[in-house]
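STRUCTURE REQUEST FORM
Protein name: Large ribosomal subunit protein uL4
Source organism: Pedobacter alpinus
Requested output: structure tokens
Priority: standard
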Amino acid sequence: MEVKVLNVSGKETGAKVQLSEAIFGIEPNDHAIYLDVKQYLANQRQGTHKSKQRNEIAGSTRKLYKQKGTGGARAGSIKSPLFNGGGRVFGPQPRDYSFKLNKKLKELARKSALAYKAKDNSVVVLEDFNFDTPKTKNFVSLISALNLSEEKTLIVLSAANDNVYLASRNLQKTKVITADQLNTYDVLNAGKLVFTTGSVKKLEEALAK
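Status: completed
Returned output:
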């Protein structure tokens, strides 16, 4: 798949990039995508939720009233889950939600997500760029020149760039990552993928095997 390279003004540079068929041209595997996204979201969970069981509630353990003769159900403790302020039955407890996935499956999921974006013509290739200062207005100008102001945009750089990252972090619809941070969830969550020429090479080195 051949894509024209644009400059920061949104105009064609005359250069073209050949996107690898081994990455952007495969038949997508939906189940691999599902598992990888599920793992990503599970890993975001802190798992610190906690409710108190009856043995953790502060309160007296004396029997509330005699066992028989009251006409009501027997009760042994104010901490019972049946009473207001009592312990909770089978409540949430701290846990780790993460689970393991094989590297090859995660690679297949990333390739599948990229293939979907390529089929939708949602991949843009930009020449390598930099900002002299980390100003948001510079980044807004770039996004406007590419006609992506209304799109959820994922920009993939070849290496970390503080000026570009700091200029973009106030914008809700834009996320900047490096090629080695690329994951299935971010690819699918974005409306448009913007790669720099350097990040395309790095991605192909990592995934085109």
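Reviewer notes: Helices lie at 21-24, 30-43, 103-119, 136-145, 162-168, 184-189, 197-207. The chain has a mean pLDDT of 91.
Form closed.
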